[in-house]
Input
Amino acid sequence: MSEPLVYVNGGFVPQSSAAISVLDHAVLYGDGVFDTVFGWRGRIFRLDEHVERTFQSMAAIALAPPFTRGELRDLVLEAARRNGFENAYIKWIVTRGVNGRPLMDPAGCTANLIIITQPYIERVSAERSALGISLKTVAWRRPSGQVLAPQVKSLNYLNLVMAKIEAKAAGADEALLLTLDGYLCEATGCNVFLVKGRRLLTPKRDILVGITRNSVIDLAPGLGFTIEEGDFGLYDAYTADEIFVCSTAGGLLPVCRIDGRTVGNGTPGAAFAQLSTAYRALVDSPEAGPAYLTVNAVA
Ligand code: PMP
Output
């Protein structure tokens, strides 16, 4: 099979020859933003929302956009079309760029756009997700907006990488991070929901506002759930009927163990089944997002 094509420095090149400068601020300082979408049956789910989030992130870090919303949208669709994967993992990165000096001052940098497209990546195997994953509360806390706004999908993910390492070293699948003042926050790259009866509780402070989280919030009332966005503690998690995490790359994943405790009866619950079926139907629907493979796209 031929190599995927990556968009970088204004053109498409094979992945193995895609390169950026070692002087790019993204390399030197993690200075840039990114977003991840997926193509499913030839459509990109909620592309416009992801494009908007990139623009908000760039505004927050004073990175002058090197493209318009429409141009970014068209380039992502073009990258998906050229690679032709019916189900695809697509990540774009906007780096601060290069000004010729390995110094912190970004004056004179011109942003560079990278779009990586690969066949869809299953983050957790179907067998594993049928059993449910385990969460561990980690010592690393999520920085507050006064330190580094978590709403910005920036290239500074070291905090989350450290959390992931800590959780895996302890034998858990995923890390649960708390806010600086001890409230439930999010997992590494996923938002968290607790189920209590027909109530869905989800943290609202110091999180990346996930587009999958928004989809769950949109679907919930139609399925008879109420949504509570707020400050919740570990007690709420330890006494939840069900817990699940959600993200673009992983969809909805049930959590069956947390900090050595069993969640509910230890298997994915009825609320999870209902919500994940509805989410999958949304992803499969023609309204899911713009098509890049008309032949395979859902009618
Ligand atoms: N939290 C963080 C820190 C993330 O990076 C992500 C995206 N990987 C999410 C939550 C989930 O967001 P989305 O549903 O938009 O993928």
User: Anything to note?
Assistant: Residues 69-83 form the longest helix (15 residues). Residues 126-284 form a domain with the D-amino Acid Aminotransferase; Chain A, domain 2 fold (CATH 3.20.10.10). The longest strand covers residues 88-98. The helical segments are 25-29, 47-60, 69-83, 126-131, 158-169, 211-219, 234-238, 270-284.
